[in-house]
Amino acid sequence: MRIAVLDDYQRVATTLGDWGRLGPDVAVDVFDRNLASVEEAAAALAPYEVVCLMRERMPMPRALIERLPNLKLIVVTGARTRSIDFDAAAERGIPVCHTRGGESHHATPELAWGLILSCARAIPQEHARVRAGAWQETIGTVLHGKTLGLLGLGKLGQRMVPVARAFGMEVIAWSQNLTPERAREGGAEYVDKEALFSRADVVSIHLVLGERTRGIVGEPELSRMKPGAILINTSRGPLVDGTALLEALEAGRIRAGLDVFDVEPLPEGDPLRRAPNLVTTPHLGYVTEGTYQAFFEDVVEDIAAWRAGAPVRLLGPA
Fold first, then answer.
1. Global pTM?
2. Domain ranges of the chain
3. Low-confidence ranges of the chain (pLDDT < 50)
4. Of 15, 82, 127, 239, which has the highest C-beta tally within 10 A?
5. ∠221-226-232 over CA atoms, to 5°?
6. Which of these is catalytic: 247, 250, 264, 297?
7. 268 counts as catalytic
8. Are 128 and 109 in contact, with CB atoms under 8 Å apart?
9. Which numeric CATH code is attached to 2-103+288-307?
10. Mind listing the pLDDT tens digit for each residue in 197-233?
11. Active-site residue, 236 included
12. What is the signed CA dihedral for 286, 289, 295, 297, rounded to 10 degrees?
């Protein structure tokens, strides 16, 4: 049996899971590059019975599933995904299994604070200047006394609140389903969307991408932000209108920290690679030792259970 582990950029999958328990008749191949198109993926994955996906880094649409004649099992890391055509898999009798979420509920908010501090104090820029033999150039922003605006106050958004309080920040929040009562329970003041963008010194996005939230941050919202305010996105790239954001950054109206993008990996010629007033990370929110350990332990367990005829952690469409 041949197993493909996709998008393991750090090549750690084989060290974090006990693949030997699957038996001597199993071959595990790790892909440390992104398969960017259906054609490339179909050619590379055609021999494999099991395909292991890293979250939503590579989608599995019907067009790809139908071109993988040997595919018998899909395993995706994390607790949910919107990138697999479950109907196409079901028609082929291909089960889809998932894993535990690991540390991501803590890891992503921590990265969001890293991006906030990087933007507020220009840490990446000043680091680069010291390495180049230069000295200080920027003037930083203190977070104490400022306002954090949370676009989304779910599990991840709520974990931003105590850190903000520790910095001495006021916390306001809005989302389409948030109520004043739930905002108070989460430690924030409920405001409407317009007030959130006009009052906040830092806006951090913690929403699930869906039809109602795609492009939820556009030119009207960005234009309401204070001069020099910071926008942080560790959720999904398409939540923000990329054209409007690029214009705001190039005009110097706001600063931003992005861990997610419309297309990932971010294409070489994408203008965000050269945009001013921007700190970027390559979708690192959930990429921690503890999370990856849980992912690959469960991937092996999922495959072993499926081979034994009793698949576990079966996943279906949302």
1. 0.94
2. 2-103+288-307, 105-280
3. none
4. 239
5. 65
6. 264
7. no
8. no
9. 3.40.50.720
10. 999 999 999 999 999 999 999 999 999 999 999 999 9
11. yes
12. -170
